[in-house]
Design brief:
The protein has five helices and four strands. By secondary structure, the chain is mainly alpha-helical. It has a single domain, classed as Alpha-Beta Barrel (TIM Barrel). It has a two-stranded parallel sheet with strand order 1-2. The longest helix is centred in the middle third of the chain and has 11 residues. It starts with a helix and ends in a 5-residue tail after the last helix.
Length: about 100
């Protein structure tokens, strides 16, 4: 992932299969990701994910929104994104 990131300039959010702090540190030190996006069940919980991201100076994936030690509850229904219907229409495959 570090090579892809380096050669393409694409921002990489990764970490879903990282299982502990050591693996996270290695991925970050190798330059394999820009945004740490772990599975909180694999990494040891929300607090562990936040701690790892802060210790290594990388942003935490958008799926986890914590401020002042508290999780933020979404105020709107849905996935937290706005779907661009024009893009959907542009790439629609008609069968």
């Amino acid at each position: 992932m570090a090579r892809i990131r380096g050669e393409t300039g694409v921002t990489v959010a990764a970490g879903e299969n990282i299982g502990n702090a050591g693996e996270a540190r290695r991925a970050i030190e190798l330059g394999a990701l820009d945004i740490f996006q772990p599975s909180v069940t694999k990494i040891g919980g929300i607090a562990a994910a936040i701690t790892i991201a802060r210790q290594h100076g990388v942003p935490l994936g958008a799926a986890i929104d914590a401020r002042d030690g508290h999780m933020q509850v979404p105020q709107r229904p849905g996935l937290g994104i706005d779907v661009d219907e024009a893009v959907i229409e542009r790439y629609r495959v008609v069968s």
